[in-house]
Amino acid sequence: MKSAEKIKIANLDELVPLIGKKVIVNDTEVGVFLLESGKVKAIHNLCPHKQGPLSEGTVSGEYVYCPLHDRKIDLNTGEVQAPDTGCVKAYETEVVNGEVYLCL
Fold first, then answer.
1. pLDDT recorded at residue 1
2. Mapped to the 3 state alphabet, what secondary structure does the chain carry?
3. How many domains does the chain divide into?
4. 85 within domain boundaries
5. How far is 85 from 71, CA to CA, in rounded Å?
6. Which residue spans traverse the membrane (predicted)?
7. Domain region containing 42
8. Per the domain annotation, does 55 fall within a domain?
9. Is 15 domain-assigned?
10. Pairwise CA distance, residues 4 & 102, whole Å
């Protein structure tokens, strides 16, 4: 099995808890989030409904709310929460020596 490609996307000290950061990886917008728990989560940055920039949304727990229409999206799975529907790609992240990597 081929191992995942890891791309450095930030230094951990560049991330602010509960404030998203937009990065571009292979021409794709990715929203990166440092949670209060210290976990780093990453999802495709565009909401599936109105293409809202999720990195500009409000973070609560392990969810982000789209800034355009308040859809709640799980940062672990990318699933839009009921009663809404849809999904964005969720990415695995890894922190090594203070550097944040996106696993593709």
1. 42
2. CCCCCEEEEEEHHHCEECECEEEEECCEEEEEEECCCCCEEEEECECCCCCCEHHHCEEECCEEECCCCCCEEECCCCEECCCCCCECCEEEEEEECCEEEEEC
3. 1
4. yes
5. 9
6. none
7. 6-103
8. yes
9. yes
10. 9
17 vs 64: CA distance, rounded Å: 13
Give the model's pLDDT for residue 23.
Answer: 97
With tokens 């949304």, the residue in question is 57
Q: Radius of gyration over alpha carbons of the chain, in Å?
A: 13
Q: Is residue 1 part of a domain?
A: no
User: What tens-digit pLDDT sequence spans the chain (104 residues)?
Assistant: 455 799 999 999 999 999 999 999 999 999 999 999 999 999 999 999 889 999 999 999 999 999 998 999 999 999 999 999 999 999 999 999 999 999 98
Q: Can you give the CATH number for the domain in which 69 is found? A: 2.102.10.10
| pLDDT on residue 4 | 73
